[in-house]
Amino acid sequence: MSVSRSLYLDQIKALIVALVIALHAPMAFGGMGWIGVRIPIEESVGPFFNGFFGWYGYAINSFIMQMMFLISGYFVPRSVHKKGVARYLKDRLLRLGVPFLVGMLLINNSSLLLSRLSPASPYSELQWNNQPFNSVMVLWFLVVLFAFDLLYCTWVVIRGNRFSVDTSVVMPGLRSWLMSAVVLGILEVAMTMQTNLWIALVRSPLNALGLQGMHTFTYGFLFFLGCKASFHRWFERLDTHLVMKWFRLSVFLLLSLLGLSMTLSFNTHLVDEPVKIVLLVYFLYPFIAWGILSYLIVWFQRNEHRNGQWLAAAGVNSYGAYVIHSFVLVAVLMAIGFIGLNPWLIAIIATALTAIISFAVTGQLRKIPVVARVL
Q: What is the DSSP letter of 270?
């Protein structure tokens, strides 16, 4: 893959992981907090705050992990062809397995132990045998990604290990974009309605899959779309006219949902069954994602040199930053969350500090050759 292509994709990865952190920081204001760090704000905020952050989480979650799976899939076919299935899977076990084990046993458990010391932690009163130790938390992404890797490698074993770029294949057009969004939106709703499954997963060591599992079909579609795109250089051949039309639709939907969230926050009596709103939002997820994902790809392609090497370097460190950010965020929230700061400032400062520290620490760790092999 060319340096140019790697540059803009690395820049996107840096942005997406920063947005993951931005998504997680305000969770400290919710019921269970962020991995046990809960900052009580009920008496200091009004409906505007609640309405905004009620929308904020759904808005960011509508495209961030989708982009991570799309980009991950884009690199797979070339790598499998170059290394062969056996060596590729061995390398993936190392690169995904080691961070997973270290993250689950050391980072996640340390986060739980530290969070129990926070003033309002819901975990502080739980007995030790009821603490959610050895849980996957944010590492669910590694589990699902490896499952998709296995599926692709199985297909390669059956069909043969062939890789060649063929730009004569026609790009998917508006009809394909629309049909895929409709089908995946319906699947999102159908999966979300499997509440017993998600509740069981939330209470298990696979807890985060109870929050993300309903999006599995969308994530899988985008991973394999990324694989297909690498055969035909679809990222580089995106129809900018179609991208801009769909991006406008995505922005319209996001703003409409913001208006809906604000309306319901100021008028809580309007909806008797909030779950119906959640189902509507999840149905719209693919419609929002298609525009945001394609626009980011086009924009970063056009501006990769303006953003420079620093953002691409951050993208190289993004995987490690993702793995360690859960502990860093716990520490930052405990440092600034209980000193009387305005909740808006807490969310902004926690996001910025966690991103800076996570990327910087990963950059230093990657200077160690052994660590660089897995991060």
A: G
pLDDT value, residue 123: 87
H/E stretch holding 232 reads helix 216-232
Query: How far is Cα 367 from Cα 355, in angstroms, rounded to an integer?
Result: 19
329, burial (CB in 10 Å: exposed 0-12, middle 13-18, buried 19+): buried
Positions in the chain short of pLDDT 70? 1-5
The verdict on pTM exceeding 0.85 is yes
- Tens of pLDDT, residue by residue over 317-364, are 999 999 999 999 999 999 999 999 999 999 999 999 999 999 999 999
Q: How many C-beta neighbours within 10 Å does residue 195 have?
A: 11
The Cβ of residue 227 has, within 10 Å, a number of other Cβ atoms equal to 22
| pLDDT value of position 305 | 86
CA distance linking residue 337 with residue 43, whole number of Å: 15
Q: Which amino acid does the sequence have at 294?
A: S
Orientation of helix 275-316 relative to helix 318-336, angle to 10°: 110
* pLDDT (0 to 100) of residue 4: 45
CA distance 88 to 59: 35
Distance CA(202)–CA(215), nearest Å, equals 15
| Distance separating alpha carbons of residues 283 and 191, to the nearest angstrom | 11
Cβ atoms 361, 62 nearer than 8 A: no
- The burial of 56, by beta-carbon neighbours within 10 Å (0-12 exposed, 13-18 middle, 19 or more buried), is given as middle
Question: Is the four-CA dihedral 277, 282, 236, 175 of positive or negative sign?
Answer: negative
Give me the pLDDT at residue 258, please.
97
Q: Write the DSSP assignment of 92-134 as a string of letters.
A: HHHHHHHHHHHIIIIIIHHHHHHHTTSTT-TTTTS-GGGS-TT
